[in-house]
Design a protein that fits this description.
Two copies of one chain form a homodimer.
Chain A lengths: L6 H8 L3 H9 L18 H15 L4 H9 L5 H33 L11 H6 L3
The structure holds a DNA duplex (30 and 30 nucleotides).
Organism (chains A, B): Marinimicrococcus flavescens
Keywords (chains A, B): DNA-binding, Transcription, Transcription regulation
InterPro entries (chains A, B): DNA-bd_dom_put_sf, MerR-type_HTH_dom, MerR_fam
DNA sequence: CTACGACCTGTAGCGGCTACAGGTGCAAGG
DNA sequence: CCTTGCACCTGTAGCCGCTACAGGTCGTAG
């Protein structure tokens, strides 16, 4: 392509799939790029940066709506960004606590399970409310 | 109702919503119960126990397909149950590690954020690849 | 000029529910 | 007996963040 990145190139650079890039465009997270004569999308450096921003936000566990808000704050707006970050930290910690609870409960329930045991499986007994 | 629990009663006892009970029936996780003359579902004790089994499995983080397998193993089958438990423990730990990674990264990125700061927000800088 | 891959649009599916809309059953109070 | 009002019924669509097609078109290297 004369100038601009194809969707494949920008997706590879952003570490996401081509379908994901199109999806982000569909939901308005990435702006619709100009097209080649034949209708292929042509991205610029700014788009690649924006996609990177999204990917980084995802890696921090932000939802796409929150990333949309963060993108709007990109110039200044640290106060609101900080608020979003605090909420996101709290959400991550809630999820972690829930997983830890599950892990402890499951480890406890499965303790004493063995392949040779035919009946009275501790895990199945727990699930049955025993 | 003469004999049997209404869907509302069985849902309350199982700690899930009425819609969830109907959903479980639709996907074949709960058997279709007999109906009253007017078409209302009438559940027995066995159904309530089965619903409890499912809820307990969900509380341990199992997916509905895995719970379906566990239900089939209910009489004996400790060996396979143990295998499922081990896989589920590993899955919980993977998710926890991912959340921990996000938490550390986010806490680092948001450190130094403050409401008064107008530009150069550490979090936004991180997201922009700074 | 042909072959082949990368691209295009549109739609449906995943898991595990949740939320309607628009209708019917049931039980209790008057 | 009749009304009220809640609980129930079916069916469908939506949530999130993709992913996976089908069936076609474009771009480029040989």
């Amino acid at each position: 392509m004369r100038d601009g990145l194809t969707i494949g190139a920008v997706a590879r650079r952003g570490g996401v799939s081509v379908e994901t890039v199109r999806y982000y465009e569909r939901i308005g997270l990435l702006p619709p790029p100009p097209r080649s004569a034949g209708g292929h999308r042509l991205y610029g450096e700014e788009d690649a940066r924006r996609l990177d921003f999204v990917r980084r936000g995802r890696a921090l566990g932000f939802g796409l709506e929150e990333i949309r808000r963060l993108l709007r704050l990109e110039a200044g707006g640290c106060g609101e960004a900080q608020l979003l970050a605090r909420e996101q930290l709290a959400s991550l910690r809630r999820k972690m606590a829930e997983l830890r609870r599950m892990e402890r409960a499951l480890a406890g329930a499965a303790a004493g399970c063995s392949a040779s045991r035919a009946a009275g499986c501790p895990l199945l007994r727990t699930l049955s409310g025993g």
